[in-house]
Design goal:
Blueprint (H helix, E strand, L loop, with lengths): L18 E9 L6 E2 L10 E7 L6 E2 L6 H5 L10 H18 L7 E4 L7 H5 L5 E4 L3 H11 L3 E2 L5 H9 L4 E7 L8 H11 E12 L1 H6 L12 E2 L2 H10 L2 E9 L5 E8 L11 H13 L4 H5 L1 H21 L4 E4 L3 H10 L9 E2 L8 E2 L6 E3 L2 H6 L3 E4 L5 H7 L9 E4 L5 E2 L2
Parallel strand pairs: 5-6, 5-8, 6-7, 8-9, 13-14, 13-17, 14-16, 17-18
Antiparallel strand pairs: 1-3, 2-15, 3-4, 4-10, 9-12, 11-12, 15-16, 18-19
Helix pairs in contact: 5-6
Length: 418
């Protein structure tokens, strides 16, 4: 475990950090679900404090646990979200249409999970390869979708091994992984190595601007070592000889960026820098992401949201109303732990993933069951923890209206849906 330092330094540029964006107290690893039979076992808690670097603008947590401890045996499977699988399908159609990938191309996805995305390229006859550190998840990708996967963490060494094995990428992609790496220089340095001379990189990550503007503090947890803007990503990629040539705003995870990168020396017309890069740079600057005051003011918004959620849950309990949660998502762990929600306010959580059922939410020990539990107990309120999937969940669970049940979302502040 890394030595604790009183004054942490930026993981990208090494600048001493002094600006705190928010402090969510002590929290467990968000995906360290506790089995029912282990209810009396202890848990580790770590500081959940976000720092902002005034030099490179990277918002970040300190590293308290290694990636091996967090990701080697993982309980998040992307394919359980139909919304996310459809997002991946549309991405595949867009990329093949724009860049002409075909049977002679090589697609490599970093943090490929259970094959939720690569299956769409595979169906088009395009060679694919996943790089996935969680062996249990990679096994599902191979057994259920026949997606070949290398069970390793990605970085310079893994990139060199891929190239030596003839696996350089025409398209090198990663969704919601750039924020998950503590050694961001080793990771982005590996991208430079694994990409073919005319290759394209795309990455999606939750947009720091949307996190601050939408009060999305629950997206902060120990798996997310970094919180990224275009301004910070441009600086990091340029340091490693990669140029961002396009950027898109996508609706996933409460508002994300999809960045497009290429080798700095690649001047092909298909990878010419689009006006959207300058426009996004300007948007972030006008929002205030170049000023530390924008980051440090965020903590007060977080505290106000905590008070509003607790007020709603306490008043509901005092009125004899029953509240349960839907979705044992990592963001939900941060929310209920920071807000002090226990089973006296929320009876249980349900989740579609059988890998999470028959466990307790870490840190708060609220039990997790299958969605059918809601129809058995008929609660008054269903608090949707993965609020970014509200449309999907409220549609699948619409039958709760039959007994007068209502959905509630907690972010940006608590709201009962009509």
């Amino acid at each position: 475990m890394p030595l604790r330092m009183q004054n942490p330094k930026c993981r990208f540029c090494g600048t001493p950090l002094s600006n705190v964006m928010c402090d969510l107290g002590l929290s467990p690893l968000a995906n360290s679900y506790v089995k029912f039979e282990n209810v009396h076992d202890g848990e580790k808690f770590y500081p959940l404090k976000v720092w902002a670097c005034e030099k490179c603008l990277l918002a970040q947590l300190e590293e308290f646990e290694s990636p091996d401890a967090i990701f080697s045996d993982y309980l998040y499977f992307s394919s359980f979200s139909t919304t996310w699988v459809e997002h991946a399908r549309r991405y595949c159609e867009m990329m093949t249409g724009r860049f002409g990938f075909n049977s002679a191309s090589q697609i490599i996805e970093i943090a490929s999970n259970d094959g939720y995305l690569l299956q769409h390229f595979k169906a088009k006859g395009i060679p694919v390869l996943g790089v996935e550190p969680a062996a249990n998840v990679a096994k599902v990708a191979w057994e259920q979708k026949q997606i070949p996967s290398v069970v390793k963490f990605f970085g310079v060494q893994t990139a060199k091994e891929l190239v030596a094995d003839g696996k350089s990428a025409d398209l090198l992609l990663g969704n919601n992984v750039l924020a998950h790496v503590p050694d961001i220089n080793d990771f982005v340095g590996g991208l430079k190595i694994a990409l073919k001379p005319a290759g394209v990189i795309t990455f999606e990550f939750p947009h720091l601007l949307r996190l601050i503007d939408g009060n999305q503090f629950d997206t902060i947890y120990h798996e997310h070592f970094s919180y990224l803007s275009l301004l910070a990503a441009e600086t990091i990629f340029a340091h490693h000889g990669l140029t961002l040539f396009d950027v898109e705003e996508v609706p996933t995870h409460g508002g994300s960026l999809r960045i497009f990168a290429r080798h700095a020396e690649n001047d092909a017309p298909v990878a010419a820098i689009t006006p959207r890069v300058a426009a996004m740079r300007q948007k972030e600057t006008e929002f205030g992401l170049t000023k530390m005051a924008t980051y440090t003011a965020f903590g007060d918004k977080v505290k106000a949201t905590k008070r509003k959620l607790l007020t709603f849950l306490i008043e509901a309990a005092d009125a004899g109303k029953k509240t349960v949660c839907y979705g044992a998502a990592a963001k939900g762990v941060t929310l209920v732990k920071y807000c002090g929600v226990r089973d006296d306010l929320v009876e249980y959580v349900v989740d579609k993933s059988p890998y999470k059922q028959d466990h307790f939410m870490p840190g708060v020990r609220i039990p997790i069951y299958g969605p059918e539990r809601i129809f058995e107990t008929k609660p008054d309120y269903v608090l949707i923890l993965p609020w970014n999937l509200t449309k999907e969940i409220s549609g699948e669970m619409a039958a709760i209206h039959g007994w007068g049940g209502k959905f509630v979302v907690p972010i940006p502040e608590v709201r009962v849906l009509d």
